[in-house]
């Protein structure tokens, strides 16, 4: 494992020199370390790059780490990871991703993650993305997430793009059976000429299923962000989606959410707000002795927390 | 003017047997009466069906009536009306539309309205749509509204679809210069197998321009409604859009609003909520002695007011 990977892992996946429990470290398209546990089996995917992770029914309190790093230009890493989560399991998955280039070569990671949650399974999924390195090559991360939730299952996605990623296209698709829950907290920071696009498509197919999508973004510099979401309510269900964006400098944002209620008992709500930080917020912090720039940083930090 | 036209006019355009001031009545594609005033000149459009209406700068307190009725099947009426509103004028335009068929022939009205508001001109535009008659022929109303607002101009659109329109596709496009204002209050009621689609595209191009779009809809029976909106903020501006929908029986609704902030001082907000009437609201009115159905009617009436 090289030095850059070590640094990226510390940023994106709570790495402190070692992982406890099940893990797989992917470095420039290859496996740089793997460990299974009694309850969590990590295997190479036959016929395609990537992993098959089996989590035994009833597994509680364990964490699986599956970070992926690209540490040089001219690498376009594509990986397919499948997670089979047994009935009643309650597990955390940490899937950070860092891309780094020091030259003009593009450093790209495409992670295609599929989650199959059995009855009453619960997953907390944390994903941090970062781009680093002084190279001129583009740093790209294009994650695709597909989640199929059985009755009573719950998926909580907590995703953050810390910065330095030139281009990202994030697609999240989920289908929920009865009483299943999806919670998404997404925070994306872009600067310079970066571009981020995020697409959610959630189908509330089972009775009393529900989702809560909250996307917060900060667009600075000349960066541009696009938010798309679609919540389909096919039966008695509750869906909420929210997109809040802060603009700074010359950043621009587009928000395009859709609600589709095809059942009288589907209750769907959306909110979106785009704007810059209110002057009075800045003023309040300046009276406490912060400079205008420090005040802005503080507000953005709080907004993305 | 036939009896059906008389009845439709009473429903859609405050008609009480006569109009005061400037008016043009369109009946089955022909002119059934017209009057200009000193300040408001109504003329036939050269080279196309429709009107050219000139409102003199500074005109205050007048109302122009331009209702259109289709009173039988197998009529597909297409009309182009242009309104040139002079600087500082402050006028109300009433543009109701009724379609009626007693047979299997389709009764359709397509009104393409263009508004050119000069500096500080102010227009209140009221439009009621209704379909009547026991025929099996489709009743369609497809209005297109294009508004160009000069500096400080203001357009307030108050549009209602009362019911009985099988199919409607409503397109509204507006471009606002500095300090201009657009306010839209749209209410659409559908029932049976009716289908309504509404599209807004508003460009806030001038500094401190603003828009406030509020669409309320009730979808009953098997009816389906689609709401699309797009607000583009190109400069310092404020845009708000809201889509609230009540579902009853097997009605379904799709809401797909978009916000596009391409300037750091553009402040854009959207809200959408789709659902059926809350049980406690019904209960409250039932304790006052109303039946469940009466309670529902009362709530819907208030919602669409």
UniProtKB/TrEMBL annotation, chains A, B:
GO biological process: iron-sulfur cluster assembly
InterPro entries, A to Z: Fe-S_cluster_assembly_SufBD, SUF_FeS_clus_asmbl_SufBD_core, SUF_FeS_clus_asmbl_SufBD_sf
Membrane-spanning residues: none
Pfam families: SUFBD_core (PF01458)
Domain SUF system FeS cluster assembly SufBD core: 85-303
Stated family: Belongs to the iron-sulfur cluster assembly SufBD family.
Protein's UniProt name: SufD family Fe-S cluster assembly protein
Species assigned in the record: Luoshenia tenuis
């Amino acid at each position: 494992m090289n030095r850059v990977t070590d640094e990226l892992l510390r940023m994106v996946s709570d790495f402190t020199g070692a992982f406890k429990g099940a893990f797989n470290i992917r470095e420039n398209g290859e496996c740089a370390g793997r460990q299974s546990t009694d309850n969590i089996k990590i295997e190479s995917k036959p016929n395609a790059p990537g992993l098959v992770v089996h989590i035994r029914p009833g597994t509680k309190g364990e964490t699986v780490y599956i970070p992926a790093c690209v540490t040089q230009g001219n690498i376009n890493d594509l990986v397919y990871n499948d997670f089979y989560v047994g009935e009643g399991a309650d597990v955390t998955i940490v899937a950070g991703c860092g891309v780094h280039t020091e030259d003009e070569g593009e450093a790209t990671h495409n992670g295609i993650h599929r989650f199959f949650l059995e009855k009453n399974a619960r997953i907390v999924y944390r994903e941090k993305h970062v781009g680093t390195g002084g190279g001129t090559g583009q740093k790209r991360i294009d994650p695709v997430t597909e989640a199929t939730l059985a009755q009573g299952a719950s998926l909580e996605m907590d995703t953050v793009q810390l910065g330095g990623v030139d281009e990202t296209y994030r697609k999240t698709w989920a289908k929920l059976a009865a009483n299943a829950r999806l919670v998404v907290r997404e925070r994306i920071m872009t600067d310079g000429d970066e571009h981020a696009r995020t697409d959610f498509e959630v189908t509330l197919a089972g009775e009393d299923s529900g989702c809560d999508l909250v996307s917060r973004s900060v667009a600075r510099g000349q960066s541009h962000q696009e938010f798309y979401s679609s919540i389909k309510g096919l039966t008695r269900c509750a869906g909420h989606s929210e997109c809040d964006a802060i603009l700074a400098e010359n950043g621009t944002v587009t928000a395009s959410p859709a609600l589709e209620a095809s059942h009288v008992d589907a209750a769907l709500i959306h909110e979106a707000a785009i704007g810059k930080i209110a002057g009075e917020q800045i003023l309040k912090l300046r009276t406490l002795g912060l400079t205008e720039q420090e005040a802005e940083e503080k507000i953005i930090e709080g907004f993305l927390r």
